[in-house]
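Customer escalation, tier 2.

The customer says the design service returned an amino acid string that "doesn't look like it belongs to this structure." They asked us to rerun it and document both sides in this ticket. The original structure tokens are below, unchanged.
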């Protein structure tokens, strides 16, 4: 629909969508979306709004804020806001942007995690153009009167969030002689031993503190969490391919307490080791 609203140009477009109860319960969904052309009279400030906002700047500059996070976004940047928190945004001059207001199961927690992992609400990576393509394509379909398939829209939203989740890793990480690559090789080679962060740091001749910080910078994950994921993956493999007891698997992965290992496995997979083994078999 064409709209006239303070600060918005007449060619701006906005689409409202009302989800079914099944959609609300099971899928991601758009509540409203659009393609806006605006000037400095366009000002949004709210203490609370029910949705998450995905915004892609087509042209110009805009300021965004969500609690402690603040950013100036320009052409090619994407913004992600959890609008449950106090937030505001406005153009610095003339601006053009695409936006989705979205909701759905777990989307607010996912948004909080993405923002925390990204270190802010502004996303600028190699996949931003794909976010723009997804949004523009979906908006065009809705404007034309088609494209309101709930599953298709949910997949479109998931694609956008997945593209935002991709962090541009430093080329160093791709090299076999990088610090993180060496540390990961050490973890894999010693997966059946009770190795510690001190042991891993020593394998690359760094202090535990500096090693942990650098590993996080290069991989986006902590060494401790990375090691846990390796062990859980190995445990899952053994549960699928051997008849070893859960206690033996725990001991073979360096865990002295099988009960603690089972609790960890359950938190990470959503199933106990025995449940996982039965499902796989």
């Amino acid at each position: 629909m064409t709209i006239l609203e303070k600060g918005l140009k007449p060619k701006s477009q906005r689409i409202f969508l009302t989800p079914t109860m099944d959609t609300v319960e099971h899928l991601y969904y758009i509540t409203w979306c659009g393609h806006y052309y605006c000037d400095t009279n366009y000002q949004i400030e709210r203490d609370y709004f029910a949705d998450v906002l995905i915004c892609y700047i087509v042209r110009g500059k805009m300021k965004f804020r969500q609690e402690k996070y603040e950013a100036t976004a320009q052409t090619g940047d994407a913004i992600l806001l959890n609008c449950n928190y106090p937030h505001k945004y406005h153009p610095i001059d003339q601006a053009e942007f695409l936006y989705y207001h979205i909701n759905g199961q777990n989307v607010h927690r996912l948004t909080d995690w993405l923002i925390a992992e990204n270190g802010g609400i502004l996303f600028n990576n190699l996949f931003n153009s794909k976010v723009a393509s997804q949004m523009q394509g979906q908006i065009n379909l809705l404007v034309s009167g088609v494209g309101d398939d709930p599953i298709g829209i949910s997949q479109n939203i998931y694609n956008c969030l997945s593209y935002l989740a991709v962090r541009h890793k430093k080329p160093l990480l791709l090299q076999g002689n990088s610090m993180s690559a060496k540390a990961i090789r050490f973890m894999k080679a010693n997966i059946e031993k009770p190795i510690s962060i001190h042991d891993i740091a020593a394998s690359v001749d760094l202090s535990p503190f500096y090693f942990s910080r650098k590993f996080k910078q290069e991989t986006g994950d902590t060494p401790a969490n990375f090691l846990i994921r390796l062990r859980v993956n190995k445990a899952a493999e053994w549960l699928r391919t051997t008849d070893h007891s859960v206690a033996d698997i725990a001991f073979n992965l360096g865990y002295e307490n099988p009960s603690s290992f089972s609790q960890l496995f359950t938190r990470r997979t959503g199933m106990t080791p025995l449940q996982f083994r039965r499902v796989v078999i």
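Tier 2 assessment: The sequence is consistent with the input. The chain has two domains: 13-165, 172-280. The chain has a mean pLDDT of 90. Sent an explanation to the customer and offered a walkthrough call.
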